[in-house]
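Thread: "does anyone have the structure for this chain?"

Original post by V.I.:
We have the sequence but no experimental structure in hand. Need at least a predicted one for the grant figures.
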Amino acid sequence: MHAIKLVIFDLAGTIVEDRGEVLSAFATALDKHGISYTAAELKEWKGASKLEVIRHFVQRQAGRDGGESAVFAVFADFRSGLENHYRDGGVFPIPGAAETFQWLRDRGIPMATTSGFYREISDLILELAGWQDIFAACITSSDVPMGRPAPYMIFRAMEGAGITSVREVINVGDTPLDLQAGTNAGVREVVGVLTGLHGKERLQREPHTVLLPSVADLPGWMEGSCLGDHDTATAGLARGRARHTG
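Reply from O.Q.:
Generated one for you, tokens below.
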């Protein structure tokens, strides 16, 4: 039997509220530089490396052989707008997130975070939420060569927490890219939550173990599933990935 030894959480939309500030910062920066996009496109990029998102839209318009200076100019404006937003407006933890963290800590289960944010904004969010000291690892898109859906942030989080087996890991997130990254990493449980901008219908299209209303529901689900019989939990994961059910 493989015990759960690490739970990895995404940040915005998963453990802190997503009030549209990231999409707004993208739109403002792209608009300023005359870069075309649609709101639907930006939404599908939720959870990705923010620099990779901007590079995608800039290079789509300017061509792959040019526009790199524009990428960093847009990114600088995006950073400024988003950091000012969080500093001025603060962050709002998802109701029940702190209780879930305490439940895991009471059972000796380490936690980590991964985020498409760069290091400075991730650290700012965790500091404002008062969570800067409770995670075994906090990995950002600044720490890996490629962001989601690549599995590298999950692997770095495992490395930071001293965990060697993906069969001992739960990955929790609110976006299609979160679920894709968990699946690509091969973790034991790929958990989606419905507190982000993507609804259940969209997340159901991605391989997953379960979709929960919120991280507040994670302890109850873990007690009834993956903290019980290992074979049952593994079978549930296989069914979830095959059927894309919620």
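V.I.: this helps a lot. Residues 225 and 233 are 6 Å apart (CA to CA).
O.Q.: and The two ends are 25 Å apart (CA to CA).
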